Amino acid sequence: MDNISEALIPELRKIETDFHQALTKLVEIPSVINETEGDTPFGKNIDLALKMTLKICKQLGFSTYYDPEGYYGYAEIGAGDEMIGVLGHLDVVPAGSNEEWETPPFLAMIKDGKMYGRGTQDDKGPTLAALFAVKALMNLGISFPKRIRFIFGTDEETLWRCMNRYCEIEEIPSMGFAPDSVFPLVYAEKGLLQLLLEGKNETKLRFLAGNAFNAVPDTAKYAGERQSELKTALEELGFAYETARDEVVVLGKAVHAQITEKGINAINRLLIGMKRIGYTSKTIEFVNDLVKEDPFAEKIFGECEDEASGKLKFNVGKIELNEEVERLSIDIRIPVTADKHEIVNTLSQIAKEYGLEYKEFDYLKSIYVPKDHFLIQTLMKVYQEVTGDLVSEPISSGGATYARAMDNFVAFGAVFPYQTKTEHQPNEHIELAEMFKAMHIYAKTIYDLTR
């Protein structure tokens, strides 16, 4: 069909209200994880959302499958050996304080051209938009010489156990996308390595600082001896601090670990100050000798970067010195063409010289689909045709999207470059006109991918 794009718009208009009604039903299911509830892995509401989605798919004409263990489900249409995948998730983060919401978080409401509710943007809205986009193609009598499989995850907001199970026992699509991020698309995501460096604490130092691996700490408190000397050292170094409740509080600037160079690490500054007044320990020496305030840790890894995704990023997110151990909690964003095993071996060997043992906490492999790949070329061509946006480029990211779950997947929409991301926030919403445009993009994309 040569005029597929023109034919799609009126067909999408016919089912737009059906899309709104289906999304309303899904938003009203508070699918927040609750592992202590019921016989399903993530709680009755997540299971209810999965079953509701599969029911919607069946009504639209898809064949469906529900994992007997309740980890995932999928819906499929088309024929052929090759399969194109669309990966979305049905779990949501908690609503938070209801007082911060202008509308009830789990009651989908439309006002001023927007639909409000938890999950509208992340990720029930975009997932259903892609689903109804395929329904429009079906209504036009389009045949699919490749299979299209919508895979519905249920544990994206926590540990991705849904996709771990799916990938262990199910067929993996040859390529696909996750409508769970931004347009135009994210083609490269750095490897995300979180680790501990631990050693026996042979000092009398006791302190704790930082909240998360993936956050540059904005404060680091010290309540031990020699605070007056420490304050003098911090002043000499030009490091901001304040005194509170018999503590010295070193001040930094909090940012996400994927942009650690834009923050100021309060833990590193505290350890630099402590070294200056003569304190020593395994972690103090490690940070002072090898890291200091370098967000790229080039003394450890050299100039580790690539054209696709940029520099390696290194963040000391937490530190603990208790009666038994010294422990650093570290987040590393690894360039997509770098070898994770080489990174680990280099860090392990150097840490050992300081009496620190490497312990892996978590790892998400990088994704990288070259810009000349058929998938990238097709998605970008459709995006540009539908939007007229010839300026926005494919994105490289240090963050993590659901596309990491499978090879040859990229994140593709549904937030446009000029829109505000509202996921995980009070008053999460979608702009209905922009979501209709996303539906148009998804329909034309799937048509082109299956030709």
UniProtKB/TrEMBL annotation:
Domain of life: Bacteria
Keyword entries, A-Z: Dipeptidase, Hydrolase, Metal-binding, Metalloprotease, Protease, Zinc
PANTHER family reported for this sequence: ACETYLORNITHINE DEACETYLASE, N-ACETYL-L-CITRULLINE DEACETYLASE
Organism name: Neobacillus rhizosphaerae
Protein name listed in UniProt: Dipeptidase
Family affiliation: Belongs to the peptidase M20A family.
Residue spans crossing the bilayer: none
CC cofactor: Zn(2+)
SUPFAM superfamilies xref list: Bacterial exopeptidase dimerisation domain, Zn-dependent exopeptidases
Known EC number: 3.4.13.-
GO MF annotation, one: dipeptidase activity
